[in-house]
Specification:
The protein is mainly α and 238 residues long. It has one domain: Up-down Bundle (Ferritin). Helix content is 68%, strand content 3%. A two-stranded antiparallel ribbon has the order 1-2. α1 runs antiparallel to α2, α2 packs antiparallel against α6 and α5 packs parallel to α8. The longest helix has 27 residues. It holds the Pfam family MiaE_2. This is Ferritin-like domain-containing protein. It comes from Microbacterium radiodurans.
Length: 238
């Protein structure tokens, strides 16, 4: 999957540095200056991911008969669309064309959505909640490499992080039928591999050597810890 993303030579003489938690919240933020893609790649990926989540949630709205659930899904879809629009605004403020920046990632990220689309609506809802959470965390970490532009994107991703509507639908279903717990727990574990592949493929090198792996390990560990907390909050085994 690394061939999906632009290849660049690493700058010489720069090292990764841990930044303080500070404005970036609970997840430790690594300065990915050596590993981060260029800013246009970062923005294009981030914007298209949110558009994809909006599309998935919109499809779920159409397929859901219960009015209350349609309303809940519409809230989550609106959040994803708002993130997308605000990242697009950041792109336009930089004088770039959002469609041009997103186009290289349409095919791979659509493939990711298909791979993480469940056979049942509840599985797809869980996919959105968990994969969006993991990738938002990762992109917030990555944003530390892009100065003010990165800070703007981090604020967008953190300010609009309300997927509680999805969580309620999922937990209500588990409460009504305990068989959902084991199925959704297994599905949640299956999502991790595909999602981490997307995160790793977003880094500049096509291959991380042992030193690079050690440098990024704290951030991926924090992403996984946050994922485990999301699973636990729904009564699912991570």
């Amino acid at each position: 999957m690394a061939t999906w993303f632009f290849k660049r030579k690493r700058p010489v003489g720069r090292t990764l540095r841990l930044r303080s938690r500070g404005d970036y919240g609970d997840v430790r933020r690594v300065d990915f200056e050596e590993l981060a893609p260029d800013v246009d790649t970062f923005l294009g990926q981030a914007a298209y991911l949110q558009l994809g989540y909006f599309e998935t949630l919109s499809d779920l709205i159409a397929a859901t008969p219960e009015l209350a659930q349609k309303e809940s899904l519409s809230l989550a879809a609106g959040t994803a669309l708002l993130k997308h629009r605000e990242i697009v605004a950041v792109i336009r403020d930089r004088g770039a064309d959002p469609l041009e920046l997103m186009l290289p990632f349409r095919e791979p990220l659509d493939a990711f959505r298909r791979a993480t689309h469940g056979a049942r609506p509840l599985e797809s809802m869980l996919s959105v909640h968990l994969t969006a959470g993991m990738l938002d965390d990762f992109y917030i970490a990555l944003s530390a490499s892009y100065a003010e532009t990165g800070r703007e994107v981090a604020v967008i991703l953190r300010a609009h992080d309300d997927r509680s509507a999805l969580v309620k639908i999922i937990t209500d279903a588990i409460a009504a039928d305990e068989q959902w717990r084991a199925l959704l727990s297994m599905w949640g574990r299956r999502l991790v591999g595909d999602t981490l592949i997307i995160a790793r493929a977003a880094l500049r090198p096509t291959f991380l050597d042992a030193a690079d792996e050690k440098r990024v390990e704290p951030t991926f560990a924090d992403v996984m810890a946050a994922h485990a907390r999301r699973m636990a909050a729904m009564g699912l085994e991570a």
